[in-house]
Amino acid sequence: MTDPKGQAAALKIPGYPSIDTDAFISHFEGCNNYTLVFAEGVVQPLLTSRSLLYFEGQLPHFIRISKSHLINPAYVDSVSRTGRLAVTLTLRGGARLVISRRRTPASLLRIWTYQQERSS
A single GO molecular function, which one (predicted)? Predict the structure, then answer.
C-alpha cells in the first residue's frame, strides 16, 4: 500500500522492527489498549500493546470504519449492503468487516475516492 502520493508509508510497530512499511498490512483490529495487526503472508495476526489511535496517527490514508477497525483501502475487494443500514466490506484474503452505522457515509466516500485516484 502506498500513501496518496504513491510512496510507501513508514510504520513503527513496537516489538516488530522488521515490519517498517504498511505495504502488506490489510487491517488493524483494536481491543482496549491492544491492537491486532493483520498482514498478508502472516498466519496469525501480530499483537501489539498500542491502541488503534496510535496506528491511525501514523497512517492517515488508512480508513477508520468502526471503533475497533482500521483498514487499508488498497485491500478492499468488495462493498455490500447486508441490511437496511448495514454495510460490509470484504478484504482480499476473505476478511469481512462491518462498517459502523455512523461512519458509513464518510468511510464509503474515502474508499470510493481512493479507488478513483488509483484508477486514474
Answer: DNA binding
